[in-house]
Design brief:
With about 230 residues, the protein is mainly alpha-helical. It has two domains: about 70 residues, Arc Repressor Mutant, subunit A, CATH 1.10.10.10; about 140 residues, GntR ligand-binding domain-like (Four Helix Bundle (Hemerythrin (Met), subunit A), Up-down Bundle), CATH 1.20.120. Helices cover about 70% and strands about 5% of the residues. It has eleven helices and three strands, in the order H-E-H-H-E-E-H-H-H-H-H-H-H-H. The chain has a three-stranded antiparallel β-sheet with strand order 1-3-2. A hairpin with a 3-residue loop joins strand 2 and strand 3. Helix 4 runs antiparallel to helix 11 and helix 5 runs antiparallel to helix 10. It starts with a helix and ends in a 15-residue tail after the last helix.
Length: about 230
């Protein structure tokens, strides 16, 4: 693929993802190739490529008769995904603990990024480092089926949505549980790390269930931006 076209495709994908996360493009909104191509002063080819990538992230959906529209990710779907994530990550921690004892430097690097993003109100940094933190644990379990199951939940997208709907204070308050998880894995305590991960995910399940029962306008961080 031409590098210039790829760069433009990435630029369009990032811009549209940010608009979806922030609510500027609401669920059901139609995305028109020609209009977007004109906005970015490009051909329709990189726009189509951006649409395919957004569809893979489950942010949009395409239909031969309705075109490409922003996909509605309901609070119920988010709650169910976090519920399943908790179970998968509990198992991942238990499997990974004996393998990573005393070797969690990369996990602590991601933890530093999470803390920096939360305290600075930088959603882009927080989302990227949070994804890195959780993915590292699942990859460290060295179980391909477990990793595939986790990736099928599309948390690259869900973390961005969750961050965009959380206040800076909520994200700062979540730093400590990530610290506790890293500390437990550092000493090879997979049971504690697993329980903490499950508790963390199930806490987010409750948050999304509450949002389903009591819909409100999403709280946004001061610098809502994504680079997923």
């Amino acid at each position: 693929m031409d590098a210039t076209r790829q760069c433009m495709s990435d630029q369009i994908r990032h811009a549209l993802a940010e608009r979806i996360y922030s609510g500027k493009l609401p669920p059901g909104e139609r995305l028109v190739e020609l209009q977007i191509a004109r906005e970015f002063d490009t051909s329709q080819t990189p726009v189509r490529e951006a649409f395919r990538e957004l569809e893979a992230l489950r942010l949009v959906e395409s239909n031969p008769y309705r075109g490409t529209r922003v996909r509605e990710v309901s609070p119920r779907e988010m709650a169910e995904a976090y519920l399943v994530r908790g179970v998968l990550e509990q198992l991942a921690a238990e499997l990974a603990a004996p393998l990573v004892r005393g070797k969690v430097e990369k996990l602590r690097d991601a933890l530093d990024g999470i803390a920096a993003g939360a305290k600075a109100g930088d959603a882009k940094l927080y989302a990227a480092e949070n994804l890195k933190f959780h993915r590292w644990i699942v990859e460290a379990a060295d179980n391909r089926i477990l990793l595939q199951s986790w990736e099928a939940l599309s948390f690259e997208t869900r973390i961005g949505l969750s961050v965009a709907r959380s206040s800076p204070q909520e994200l700062v308050e979540r730093i400590q549980i990530h610290i506790d998880i890293a500390n437990a894995l550092d000493v090879g305590d997979g049971q504690t790390a697993g329980l903490l991960l499950r508790h963390h995910s199930h806490g987010l399940t409750s948050v999304w269930k509450d949002r389903e029962a009591n819909p409100v306008e999403p709280a946004t961080m001061s610098k809502v931006s994504t680079d997923l």
